[in-house]
Amino acid sequence: MAPGKHTYKKSSASSSQTSLTPCQYCTQTFSTRGIKSHEASCKNKWEKKKQSREFAEIAANVMKAQRKAHKDKQCLCNDKIQ
C-alpha cells in the first residue's frame, strides 16, 4: 500500500439492510444515526413556517376587516382625487 492511501472496510450491514426512520416533520428517511440531528433542524424550520403561515392568515383577516370598515363608511376617497 502506498503512503497516504487508506482503505476502508465496508460496514457489515449492507445499505439495503440499514434501518431507515422517517422524519416526523418532512417524512424523509434517515439512518437511526442521522435522524436525531435532522429532526432537530427540521422541527425549527417547520415551526418557523407555521408561524409565518399563521401571521399571514391574521394579516389577511385584518386587511379584510379594514376594507369592510372602509366600505361601510361609504368613503368618498375617490371623489377627493378628481
TrEMBL record:
Q: Where is this region: Disordered?
A: 1-21
Q: Which domain of life is it from?
A: Eukaryota
What is the name of the protein in this document?
Uncharacterized protein
Organism source for this protein? Paxillus rubicundulus Ve08.2h10
